[in-house]
Design a protein that fits this description.
Layout: H1 4-10, H2 12-22, E1 25-29, E2 32-36, E3 39-47, E4 56-60, H3 61-66, E5 69-75, E6 83-90, H4 95-100, E7 108-112, H5 113-116, E8 122-123, H6 125-138
Parallel strand pairs: 3-5
Antiparallel strand pairs: 1-2, 2-3, 4-7, 5-6, 6-8
Length: about 140
């Protein structure tokens, strides 16, 4: 079993708690991480203060074209790496921002989280915190 810090750094923790909330299946396929009935979900996560002064989410062309929804999770920069923000939105609603922040390589976009939060989304933060607390109580990712 990997520890909490490494699970968060590798994105495994975010996938696991998002999956618990969405009641899906972890697939870790190219372009998406979870499947829920009829939909593919990509999970992106970051820790505060790892991107400098502007928190961001990184998405690629493959993720934008293969996923139906994207979950963004931001962890606090504290010893526990507790969850700060968790949202889900339709991938299509992110397309304009993706195109606006597309890097010169033509595939990757680093989108400021504050811009994403202005889009129509569902706030999953409290449900993700509950799932995370359940993991902690069960001894998973301590």
């Amino acid at each position: 079993m990997i520890d909490r810090y490494n699970a968060i750094q590798r994105g495994v923790h975010a996938e696991e708690i998002a999956n618990k909330v969405l009641k899906g299946t972890i697939t870790r396929s190219v372009g998406y991480d979870l499947t829920i009935p009829k939909y593919k979900v990509e999970v992106r996560s970051r820790c505060q203060n790892t991107d400098g002064p502007i928190p961001r989410a990184t998405v690629t062309k493959t993720k934008m074209h293969l996923s139906d929804f994207i979950v963004f999770i931001q962890y606090k920069d504290n010893i526990e790496k507790s969850i700060d923000i968790g949202v889900i939105l339709h991938t299509k609603s992110l397309m304009a921002l993706y195109k606006n922040y597309l890097q010169k390589n033509g595939s990757t976009a680093h989108i400021p989280l504050k811009k994403i939060l202005k889009l129509s989304h569902i706030d999953m933060t409290s449900r993700l915190i509950i799932a995370d607390n359940n993991f902690k109580e069960s001894g998973l990712y301590l």
